[in-house]
Amino acid sequence: MRKKFQGSLLMALAGISVATMAQSARPVAVPRHVQDIITGRCALCHGPEGESASAVYPRLAAQHPDYLQKQLRDFRDGRRVSDPMSEMAKDLKDDDIAALAAFFASRKAGARQPGDVELANVGKYIFNRGNGYSGVAACASCHGAKGYGTEQLPRLAGQHPAYVETQLKEFNKRARTNDNAIMHSIASKLTELETRAVSVYIGGLE
Ligand code: HEC
Ligand code: HEC
Q1: pLDDT tops 80 at residue 28
Q2: Is the pLDDT at 79 greater than 80, yes or no?
């Protein structure tokens, strides 16, 4: 108790905001004009910390910076199509994109979203083992056993199930094509039930 109090007193003396410390895993310096973009635009849909309270907007917090940068450039340059995001990204410079990506990547991942347990169990099987009968590769083989992704591959853990499901369907239909067809070939083999189940499982990963 006493130690904790002394700790916060020291941080207060050092001028470090305790609130900032609690919210962010790795604080980053954000240029003023980029902070204005975050507060004035991105936060409206993705939340000020990238936590995205609404299920239709993807969580950005704790996502890999390289992946975030690639997506923002793809929206800006028309390789990934989305009405709101094409508009949002159209005037962003490469430096702004790098700063936005670094900011959201530094934020703490949102709480997991456990759903229907039995459905999530079907999803867990697909995630870890794939489907040997239809040729679906295990998601874990690329996105990692915990869904944390890699520098090149997106983190999936804790993402909103509704967003994940939509993306899988978009990859399948080739409405999203900025994946070099990797995700298309996987999504095209998933059944409706498997798509829903794996999305629910992913939402529950922390
Ligand atoms: C009007 C709502 C809205 C605003 C404002 C908005 N976004 Fe988005 N964003 C979306 C939607 C919707 C998607 C999902 C697009 C899709 O379905 O392909 C998205 C997707 C993204 C993605 C891709 C995430 C992933 O996991 O692939 C990134 C990165 C992103 N937004 C960053 C930003 C940044 C940075 C800003 C501020 C400059 C911003 N967004 C402002 C609605 C918004
Ligand atoms: C062979 C490697 C590989 C496997 C296996 C794989 N993925 Fe992916 N996945 C990728 C790559 C690469 C991307 C990034 C595409 C891009 O850059 O836009 C991606 C992107 C995604 C996205 C978009 C994330 C976002 O934030 O918009 C989702 C959702 C996804 N994968 C789900 C899955 C699921 C579910 C499985 C298992 C059924 C799976 N992936 C298996 C390579 C893989």
Answers
A1: yes
A2: yes
